[in-house]
Write a structure and sequence with these properties.
single chain, about 450 residues, alpha/beta, Rossmann fold, 2 domains, six-stranded mixed beta sheet, about 35% helix, elongated
Length: about 450
């Protein structure tokens, strides 16, 4: 039935819920979808969360592929330079599975199909693909090859999240010159390093150093100053870099990563409010990671009551800014008016879907809980005059099928590095409190 030089990948449900287009990402190799996967997808087709959209889109794609009258038993051609898709009915458990695995669990039914494929076609290279670590372990215990879904995975996170660079003072007078002149052309800087577009770094030593920014468009090294925005002043070099990037009108896309308490969201919101007059609207949003596959509709109360626990950290950051400016100040009172008029909108991502993103300062908090596909969907909707900021902690992921290498924030920072409209800043110093910083560093 299949050509011997092809691999056969058996897909778990979570792969499709992560990327509905996944069946096209295995080159010329064949794809097997156990029928139980379709049954599981049917449970996810209703709802407004991204996981529900992925399920519906896959079913539409499958319907499009099968409407040409193909015989499902012969497989569904996936197109030029791609393999064939097979929908396989449930298969009996082999002896090894009968001894240890319940036949009522969907994961076990998927594993049974994979093992049947391996036993039925011993000359084929059959691989189970799942984002569920536990299922992969079960497969390997049965001597079944299993792997994670690799599309969109970052190969080396260390090169993204290694913190800021500190360069030795290669020119005796560079630091002094930059303090006096603020801008030095690259060819006269005396720095002999390979810089990428919009890179921030420190030049000098403990006694004498300067915060720097490489402006690729102008071919210059610029001095970075501490910029106060909406009553918030950066407390360290990394926050100074973040605030500088957030305030630059020519930077359209920014990722800010760091552990809890490093000031990611606070910096982004303060910069947005400082520049509010330059934008038609400020969106502050975050994904809601559903519990047990249930969306917000299952929670008690009206819309505001449902989202309140999820959005409260964003309101907390707004309150920090209000206190920095003075709760009774005109600026603080203007924020309440902005919320009432929806010029400042704090809402889950699912509730913002479909809105126009032109001339918007758009902040997505906790974006490490988004998939690469979700990140792409958000960014490709950016209109003229829009600045997008994605913040998050890649070491604190709530989604069960994402990790430090596969989440959308890591993917974005990796793919966009060196592009002229983009800046990535990694914050490592906690500024919430000495206790919070200590806990972040020591309590894994």
């Amino acid at each position: 039935m299949k050509q011997s030089n092809k691999k056969t990948f058996v897909l778990d449900t979570n792969v499709i819920l992560h990327d509905y287009h996944s069946i096209f990402n295995f080159e010329e190799n064949d794809i097997v979808i156990p029928i139980v996967v379709l049954e599981e997808l049917d449970k996810f087709k209703k709802g407004n969360e991204t996981i529900n959209l992925q399920a519906r889109e896959f079913m539409r794609e499958l319907d499009r592929l099968t409407e040409i009258g193909v015989d499902l038993e012969d497989g569904i051609p996936l197109g030029k330079d791609r393999g064939t898709l097979y929908i396989i009915n449930g298969k009996p458990f082999n002896k090894a599975m009968q001894m240890a695995f319940s036949e009522q669990i969907p994961d076990h039914k998927i594993l049974a199909v994979a093992l049947w494929e391996k036993e039925q076609f011993p000359d084929k290279h059959v691989i189970l693909v799942s984002q569920d670590i536990n299922l992969r372990m079960k497969a390997r215990a049965l001597k079944m090859e299993a792997q994670d879904y690799k599309t969109g995975k970052v190969a080396d996170t260390a090169r993204i999240f290694d913190g800021m660079r500190t360069l030795p003072n290669t020119s005796d007078d560079f630091v002094g010159r930059l303090y006096r002149e603020s801008v030095i052309t690259m060819d006269k800087s005396g720095l002999e390093n390979d810089f990428y577009a919009n890179e921030y770094f420190i030049v000098g030593d403990e006694k004498s150093n300067v915060l720097c920014y490489y402006n690729q468009n102008l071919g210059v090294i610029e001095k970075v100053k501490k910029v106060r925005a909406s009553g918030i002043t950066p407390r360290n070099a990394e926050q100074s870099f973040a605030m500088d990037a957030l305030m630059r009108s020519d930077i359209q896309l920014i990722t800010v990563t760091g552990k809890a308490g490093t000031g990611k969201t606070l910096m982004a919101l303060a910069a947005a409010l400082e520049q509010a007059k330059g934008y038609g609207q400020i969106y502050l949003s975050r994904p809601v990671v559903a519990l047990g596959g249930k969306d917000l509709g299952y929670l008690p109360g009206n819309e505001k009551q449902k989202i309140s626990p999820y959005m409260q950290p964003l309101f907390d950051n707004l309150n920090v800014i209000k206190h920095a400016l003075g709760v009774n100040s005109k600026a603080s009172q203007s924020f309440d008016a902005m919320i009432k008029e929806e010029k400042l909108l704090i809402s889950p991502l699912a509730y913002i879907r479909g809105r126009s993103l032109s001339n918007v300062f758009f902040i997505v908090d906790e974006s490490q809980n988004l998939t690469p596909h979700e990140i792409k969907t958000i960014i490709t909707r950016a209109g003229e005059g829009t600045k997008m900021v994605f913040t998050g902690d890649v070491e604190q992921i709530d989604s069960p099928f994402l990790d430090m290498r596969s989440n959308g924030l890591s993917y974005l920072a990796d793919k966009m590095k060196g592009q002229t409209p983009f800046v990535h800043i990694n914050l490592t110093h906690g500024e919430r409190s000495s206790l919070a910083d200590l806990a972040s560093r020591l309590l894994d």
